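dumping this here so i dont lose it
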């Protein structure tokens, strides 16, 4: 039974080994030629454990990118931080320009992984108007968050800065004040978090 096979492969996505997950993804892509694997996994998605959902989301995007954008936007507002983080990363990779306001809200998340992925996604999307919010995160006590913000700012403005490297918040603020025609600025204090505090990790499908 092909559904049983798909279900078994889905649970293999729990592996922490990236190479194993890639093999599983490729097998599911091959099966997509015979049956609607995407439709079957999409039907199960809302019932998946947050320990499994992010990897299934990744596979769904590979199976059918066009059908996955709406799901990614929904997942970016999940109550589980790993799902939000993966959704934001994928929206950035897919250059989903219509999702920039949603992605920006990830900067105000209470989880650092989500903040980091939101910052990098905004850089991929080229959202220069998010500069004030990214400058705000330079003051984050988490060095990973402040580092991601700094790298994203540099990527957004590489054409203007060239080899120049701005350091302190004050230098970035001075630089930003000299810019124009970048759209309505996105400021950290104006952003609504993508979700309330994370729920406990209890859900339906986490074992076979």
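and the seq i came up w/
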């Amino acid at each position: 039974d092909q559904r049983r096979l798909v279900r078994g492969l889905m649970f293999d996505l729990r592996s922490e080994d990236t190479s194993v997950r890639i093999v599983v993804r490729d097998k599911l892509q091959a099966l997509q030629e015979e049956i609607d694997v995407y439709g079957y996994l999409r039907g199960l998605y809302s019932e998946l454990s947050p320990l499994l959902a992010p990897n299934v989301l990744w596979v769904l995007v590979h199976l059918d990118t066009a059908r996955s954008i709406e799901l990614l936007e929904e997942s970016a507002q999940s109550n589980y931080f790993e799902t939000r983080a993966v959704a934001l990363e994928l929206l950035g990779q897919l250059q989903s320009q219509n999702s920039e306001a949603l992605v920006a809200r990830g900067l105000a998340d209470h989880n650092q992984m989500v903040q980091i992925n939101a910052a990098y996604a905004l850089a991929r999307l080229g959202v220069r108007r998010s500069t004030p919010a990214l400058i705000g995160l330079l003051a984050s006590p988490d060095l990973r968050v402040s580092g991601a913000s700094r790298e994203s700012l540099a990527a957004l403005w590489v054409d203007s800065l060239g080899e120049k490297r701005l350091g302190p918040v004050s230098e970035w603020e001075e630089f930003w004040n000299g810019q124009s025609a970048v759209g309505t600025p996105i400021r950290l204090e104006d952003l609504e978090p993508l979700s309330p505090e994370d729920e406990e990790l209890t859900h339906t499908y986490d074992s076979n």
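The longest helix spans residues 18-32.
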